[in-house]
Amino acid sequence: MKGSLIIVGFFVLGVLSGIGDVFPPDFFSMHASQYVLYVLMFLVGLSIGYDKELIHSLRQTNWKILLVPIGTIIGTLLGTAVIGVFMPQWSITESMAVGSGFGYYSLSSIFITKYKGAALGTIALMSNIMREIFALLATPLLVRWFGRLAPISAAGATSMDTSLPIITQYSGRTYVVIAISHGIIVDLTVPFLVTFFCSF
Amino acid sequence: MLIVFFIMVVGVGVGIGVRSIPPFRHVGKWISGVIYFLLFLLGREVGTNDQLLSSLSTLGIQALLITSGALVGSIFCAWGIYKFLFQKDER
């Protein structure tokens, strides 16, 4: 709980500093934050290499790992289909197209804007940002309530990059390989599933 | 995307190399620090984008509905897979 609160705190602080123009616009560009992400990935790699037991457990990976991305995709599509039934503005497949972004908001919102217009594209952008933010914020609670795979599924395609550090912290380093392979597989399905559901 | 993997692989190599150096035990704390900083930047990005802020009301609610469906569905599947296939292997 404390972990999530600190995370929310930093995010809210960032929003407030943005609204209040506390820092000049060029104080820290997204270009610069890309390098911070690189530092983060380096540190995550470092923590993996430093752990002797982890590399041993990686050798015991098996077919079960493949079920995790399949579960994420089926669960997401079913969930968004149900929501689509109750949304008068959008069809079931349009709702599923938004869900098929799996947190990969830059790509999916571009696709959806192109096929379905800016309104649904904006929804896709926000929905997938929300998914990423939720995975980042709720990971400590998700692990406690729904097990160590829940943050990986919630993170969707981001389980291999932006959400990976927090998943590593709370699900444990033994789940890093699952998170990365999950992210890669889900990520690869995004362009296919988004265009597929936009074609209806 | 490739560069991110490359950087991580380099990190793994360095991590193996520094196993005998005790201060690297605290790498988990460094990771937390960087995560907090990135979240602050993500928040700042939202706060400075007027389009994102103003449209959060109408389209945002629809986005929230779709997101909750996606999350409930995927977390439920993940919970089932964890409970029946992963949990019993732990410790």
From TrEMBL, chain A:
InterPro entries: LysO. The chain crosses the membrane at residues 30-50, 62-86, 92-112, 133-155, 175-198. It comes from the Bacteria. Keywords: Membrane, Transmembrane, Transmembrane helix. It holds the Pfam family Lys_export. This is Lysine exporter LysO family protein.
Automatic annotation (TrEMBL), chain B:
It holds the Pfam family Lys_export. Keywords: Membrane, Transmembrane, Transmembrane helix. The chain crosses the membrane at residues 59-82. This is LysO family transporter.
